[in-house]
Amino acid sequence: MKKDILEGVMIYVINEIKPNYAVAKQYDCDYRTDKHAYEEVQDNLDRKDEQTN
Questions:
Q1: pLDDT at res. 1
Q2: How high is the pLDDT of residue 22?
Q3: Number of domains in the chain
């Protein structure tokens, strides 16, 4: 997965905004790739929160 997609989606996750998958057009990728990146970033942040608690 391209790093720019992950970085772009991370902005939404940090601001607690669920992106619409039209963001995929911005990164010239399939909406499913964008959705997978969103879920991956969200899961990683959830794991970090669990480890700090």
A1: 64
A2: 78
A3: 1
The DSSP code for 9 is: H
Does some domain include residue 25? yes
**From CA 6, how far away is CA 37, in angstroms rounded?**
6
| pLDDT tens profile 1-53 | 678 888 888 888 889 888 887 788 888 889 898 889 889 988 988 888 778 76
Contacting residues for 1 by C-beta, under 8 A, at least 6 apart:
33, 36, 37, 40
DSSP single-letter state for residue 15: T
Return d(Cα 28, Cα 42) in angstroms, integer.
Answer: 21
Q: What's the burial of 41, exposed, middle or buried (CB within 10 Å: 0-12/13-18/19+)?
A: buried
In a domain, 52, yes or no: no
